[in-house]
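Appendix B: complex inputs.
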Amino acid sequence: MTPEEIKIQELEKAWINPPGFIGWLRIVNQTNIGIRYINTSLIFFFMAGVLGGIMRAQLAAPENELVGPEMFNQIFTVHGTAMMFLFAIPMVEGLGAYLVPLMIGTRDLSFPRLSSFSYFVFLIGGVTLFGSLLLQVAPNAGWFNYVPLALKEWSVGKNIDVYATVITFIEISALAAAVELIVTILKQRAPGMSMAKMPVFVWSILVMAFMIVFAMPGVVVGSVMLALDRLVGTVFFDASVGGDSLLWQHLFWWFGHPEVYIAFLPAAGVVSTVIPVFCRRPLYGHTAVVLSMVAIGIISFGLWVHHMFTTGIPDQANAFFSVASAMIAIPSGIQIYCWIATLWTGRPKFTTALLWCMGFVIVFVVGGLTGVMVASVPFDKQTHDTYFVVAHFHYVLIGGVVFPLFGGVYYWWPKFTGKLLNETLGKWNFWMVLVGFNVAFFPMHLLGFMGMPRRIYTYLEEMQWGPLNLLSSIGAYVLTLGFLIFIVNIIWTHFKGEKAGPNPWNASTLEWYAESPPRNYKFLEIPQVNSLNPLWEKEELKPATIGMRTDRREILITEILTGKLQAVAILPTNTIWPLVLSIATGMAFIGSIFSPWWFVGSFFLVFLAITGWFWPSRPWDEGRDV
Amino acid sequence: MNVEKWTRYHADLKHPYWWGIMGLIVIESTVIAIFLASYFYLWIVNSSTSRMAWPGGEIPSIFYPSVNIGLLLFCGWSMWYGGVLIHKNKTKAFGWLAVACCVVACGVLWLRWLQMLNLPFSYDQNAYASFVWVLSSFHFMHVLAGILGTAVIGWFSFKGYYTEQRNLGVQIDTIYWYYIVASWIPVYFVIYITPRFQW
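Resulting structure:
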């Protein structure tokens, strides 16, 4: 065997995924975890989409009796909660978990066991939420779950307890993933990849992860207070003894507004990656786009009260948050101009991935414009809690998040699987979704103007909302068909898909330097990076180092700003403990729906699982360099 | 660059775990900051609308919480000095300091327990009472976690696992102790001291 073959053999052995079902539960490799995240969140996306379809069926005609009011409440609550907490965040974090290490030229995320833990937490939380719907005890006070409606006095069943505990539980997963994305991006970039040479998608994930770290604690505190008020009897939200209902709204929207940008920024990162590749030119205004992302990340923390314009808070505060809300259009606009300029000055090749990104620009601009409208206090007071707002946020979230993410899935599918998705089916997928989406959601603007409130399970014929609702429902089914074509495409590609080489799009970033799909060790040698678009440079990439051991999981550590080589570290291997810990944590949170003692008991189980996790395996070496 | 001879034993900023524990601390600090912001929010809302005089009842004694500051500072110091000793390869001495840290921290828990038993209000009396109970219990849980973690670290040091080079676990545990100590100070100040001021 040649030295290179020996090296490959050793790396394969060091980075092996254990076989069998138990082995599957022990895998910590980031590409596996990333794919699990993406697949699971897509499944939750389709399940929540089915709930949307049921709502549209119910609302297609006046005084329809397909679902009753109580079930309708549970359906729209789970639809919204799942789309935000079980699709948007995990999908972008899954993409990040898969792509970031490949894009920055390292072999795994910083805390591989934490990746596995956060996935299982997400899975358990998601299954619990949908399971509660089957048992008809799902949350039923809307995805933002306002008190006092959500307090024990007005919501007697276990529904809201499921919300309060499961949301906090799922946030653990999002927070864990955020920390490891930050550390990986800051400390594990390939030597030479300074911050200025970091791909724009990685920037978007970095900003998103920081936003998660500072935004999520808001909803964690809020839902902990709510769970305690309901389960233990504290009085944080009881206005008769010093609590306050609006406190919940502040805590929720402190998280809830940045949340929109948490989902949007990685999507913008996808667009900023895909458009240049298919325009055969570097991104126009890379620095401006990156700075806009950072600006959006910061400004998004100053907008939350625009969800509360009608709650009677002082006009001065309304004015401040109104201005801040309009201000975020500036960095968003800069990004859009940079994308248009890239398209304008490039030679676009209209692949499915690029179509999704262009569709995104159009739909998102509409959503952005209605956003500027509702940022104005007088306008918002007229349209608050009407279907106008439903239309607005679906344009922003489907246009701003789902479209680019599907673009990203088409773009990176060859990397994930080694096969190219079918372009003809892809284009059908895109056009059906684009048309179906607009037919479904544009009429909702008008319904809002006609006074139709959100969250009603039916309406009288005399209101004359029937025809537009029917049109909207027809659009929703075209949209559903469009998404079903995606599933057909996956199946078709699995059996008959064209094989993709390592770099089928001739793209410029490092993930395309690895094989498709990548080996567990990702790169035979960690490359030295000297450019923002390393694969478009004339010179071939060269190994950054020699002497990394191949018989264990070694990675390179570099300096935060300069990307200068700093150290070599060893990553941990496969283990079952993350699963055990996620189950113990799940028992603590989900058990506390029934009794606080579950939390106390599980605390010690959590400790045992963490101890097992960090237990050093024997034989121990010297513990020092000899 | 040839990295073959480079050390792989890192217990500082060169190891991802150091950054990981910082991430956890930033998250938990944000949680506490939001709790404390909520406390002041309710105080302001209640005062400005004359709904309830803050804190709305008797103020708890600061004796036990103040003693606990001293005990917690000892825990932080013992872990810090333990780290100094472990860098001189005095692992057994570190082990005994870890034991001392655990014992003193148990004292913190005991005093906290006594204090909670003797609070002049129950957690459902008013919002202020809810804050005192929840934040004090939240910190109780952290001290308990610190004790359990340090007990394991101490056991490993007696077993000879830690050396002057391999002591990442010790550093991580120590940093977390600093956080447990440091986080108590603003919580103490806000929930026990600020209600005593009449603004």
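The first strand of chain A starts at residue 419 and ends at 420.
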